[in-house]
Amino acid sequence: MRERLPYIPASSVDDVLSKSNAFLSVDKELYVRFDRLDVPNEEKEAALNFTKDKVSEVGFLTIGELPLGRLEARNEEATPELLRRALFELALKDEFRLYGRLISEKGEKLNRVEVVRRFCRAAGSRLDLEEIRDFALDLTGGKSVDAQNLALEAAWTSLVCLEQGVFCPDCFLDFDVEATDAALDAFFATLEPKREHAGSKEFTSFSQFPRCGVAWSVCVLESFCRRFSRRYRWEARSFNKSSTGAVFRVDSEKTFLDGASEFAAFANVCLDKSAVANVLIDAGYLADGRSEKILGDIISKAKAMRKEAR
């Protein structure tokens, strides 16, 4: 195109093509005319009906889910991705919008976390964190760090963790909430000195916990405290796959920073970054000591707590 229009700026050519209803962008600086593709009405109708059913069921679908029928046989030189993009433009565009690779009803404002939660719930079986992250990549424009954070938040707030990086629907487990809270009551009663929180690695035995359908672990405990417990909650610096964090009493007004600082303050260690990092890592409050800011904040509060306790 640029060779045929040498006197028109390349940016202007790209701008016109990208806004044209007759062309579809399939790659950087590569466009295809819709009328060069063989997309019969029955295939458009099938894609539209499929999309309506899927959106009615879960609220969205990815463009990769669109059925191609016999389109590949009719358009042997076209890729599946190109054909699905064409289907959207020709059959769905009037009623639906395409956000990244996600198709939803026009006018609906999708919360990215809620979209991934819906994906998690719709799975109906075990899901690896990698599967959830791969889905989230479509919502983050391929930004892997954002996708990982999105996947972790959605998984921890909609599923139950069976083991590190493996999640499942609630139906896989059967928590006796009152009996489990009572087991946590008994655990907290043994803490010396008495406190309203405990690091994840302080839970070294689950022999007093009631059966829940799977073997108890810190991962299962985090899921219970995040979503089912009436008397306890889970706090952490951020969602993570290693269940680093702490269990707090629900009625405690302390934040995660407060709890970590209190644990460090009353531990028999010097309040320097190395010693504080080690004691908090050993107790499970932190995964590592790489964050200078969080350690600085914890040490500052811990020093104030020690001074006040004198």
Entry keywords:
3-stranded antiparallel β-sheet; 12 helices; 46% helix; 3 domains; 310 residues; alpha+beta; single chain
Describe this structure in words.
The chain is of the alpha+beta class and 310 residues long. It folds into three domains: 10-105, no CATH class; 112-162; 177-309, no CATH class. It is built from twelve helices and eleven strands. The strands form four sheets. The chain has a three-stranded antiparallel β-sheet with strand order 3-5-4. It has a three-stranded antiparallel β-sheet with strand order 6-8-7. The protein has a three-stranded antiparallel β-sheet with strand order 9-11-10. A hairpin with a 2-residue loop joins strand 4 (96-99) and strand 5.
Count of helical regions? 12
Mean pLDDT: 89
Overall tally of domains: 3
Major β-sheet annotation: 3 strands, antiparallel
Q: Approximately how much beta-strand content do the residues carry? A: 5-15%
Radius of gyration: 26 Å
Structural class: alpha+beta
The order of strands across the largest sheet is 3-5-4
Helix content: 40-55%
The coarse silhouette is elongated
Secondary structure: number of strands: 11
Roughly how many Å apart are the termini? 79 Å
Uncertain parts: none
- SSE order, one letter for each helix or strand: HEEHEHHEEHEHHEEHEHEEHHH
